[in-house]
Structure formats: C-alpha cells, structure tokens
Write a structure and sequence with these properties.
With 228 residues, this protein is an alpha+beta fold. The chain is 54% helix and 7% strand. The longest helix is centred in the middle third of the chain and has 27 residues.
C-alpha cells in the first residue's frame, strides 16, 4: 500500500480525478489528507513550485498536476485488468488532450468567473461566456454515453467536476448553467457519470464542498473593488 500515496483533499475535484483514475485502474493507494490552511512539509517538498494538491507519490517520487498525474497512471499501470484511460489512436489521444486543456483553461475559469461576478451587467456577461464555453462540450458528448465511448475515459474524468461540483458553484453563485433543456446531452452524461462505480464512491459530502467553495468565492468578492 505504501508504494502509492495521494496527497489531497476530498473537496477538491482535481484530487477526485486522481482517485477515480486509480480506482478504475485497480491501484491501491494511501490517501494523505492535506490541510490547505496549514500545508504540510511533505506537500511543500513534493510540489515546491505550486505547493498545491493533488500530488501522487509513487515509489517515493512525486508527480504534480492532475492532468499529468492521470497520464502517468494510465501509462504506469497498463497491464492492470482495466481499460486504457486515454484513446489508443494517436489522433483521438491528441483530441482528448486538447479538450482536457480546454476544460481546465476555459470551462473551469469561465464557470468560476460567472460564480464570483458582481450582480448586474458583469454577471450577465460572465454567465453568457460560461454558457458559450460549455456549449462546446455539449457538441462533443452528443450521441455518446461517455466522452470515452461506452466506458469512462480520460476526458470523462477531467470533465467529471461538472457532474457534481458544478451544482454547488451554481448554488453559491445563484446561477444556472447546465440543465436538461439547455444542454440535454451534457446533462445526461453527468447523470451517467456520477452514478457509475467507482465514481460515486469518491464523492465528498455536499456540505463540505459548499464550505470549501464558499470560502473562496467570499474571498474573491471581498477583494473586488466597490462599484457603489
């Protein structure tokens, strides 16, 4: 068990990605819960550049950043009795990486921006921008059960936060971005994803996620200039 360790926090969806990947691959691991308000020496030593979770430690060697870790898991445990997370075809694999980067650099950022935006025109523009960004994922999932086909793959894991964490952000931001009417395919995918093992086995309590995001949103809003 000590060969593989995961430094993380259960409320964080990048950390959930790694748990999902490890469980799909059938890899046993030790979870080292991190207190982000008082970061451990192990975290700082393992990820001295960003000092962020998640960090995977395999045979004493640390790997940081969730997308990088997922690829490492897929390549390291190829022979486990499980399917590959990334597509085998080079073109399809490149596309999966493109959309994973799009999700982290565009979708996450635009959704967060819509949640923390001040009421009024700023909020309206931010919500419109987030909806436009998410519309690209709606097109990608159309006609499929999962982004990876019939089985959960790399891109499903990367987008997995939309199936649970998004609703918390919508509640805190008092907005609605994804529903069955606006994005029927993405909405259906989210239900399929979150109700599949082992995904549903690694979901933190909603109240914990609410508290986790509420702190961040309140902090950002408190730092915003007063337009009154």
């Amino acid at each position: 068990m000590g060969e593989v360790k995961l430094i993380g926090t259960h409320q964080s969806f990048p950390c959930a990605r790694i748990e999902w990947g490890l469980k799909i691959k059938g890899v046993e691991y030790e979870y080292l819960k991190e207190d982000l308000s008082n970061k451990s020496d192990l975290l700082i030593e393992s990820n001295p550049v960003h000092k962020k979770v998640p960090v995977l430690i395999h045979k004493g060697k640390p790997i940081a950043e969730s997308l990088v870790i997922l690829e490492y898991i897929d390549e390291t445990w190829k022979d486990n009795n499980s399917h590959s997370l990334l597509p085998q075809d080079p073109y399809e694999r490149a596309l999966a990486r493109f959309w994973a980067k799009f999700i982290d650099e565009k979708c996450v950022i635009s959704v967060w921006g819509a949640c923390v935006a001040q009421e009024g025109e700023e909020k309206e523009k931010a919500v419109e921008g987030a909806i436009e960004t998410l519309s690209h994922l709606e097109k990608q999932i159309k006609g499929k059960k999962f982004f990876g086909g019939e089985k959960i793959g790399y891109l499903d894991i990367v987008a997995g936060w939309l199936s649970y964490w998004l609703s918390v952000l919508e509640e805190l931001g008092e907005i609605e971005l994804v529903n069955a009417e606006r994005f029927p395919c993405l909405h259906e995918w989210g239900k399929n994803f979150i109700n599949t093992s082992p995904i549903k086995d690694c979901i933190p309590p909603r109240e914990d996620v609410l508290a986790y995001f509420s702190f961040g949103i309140n902090y950002v809003r408190s730092m915003a200039p007063n337009k009154a």
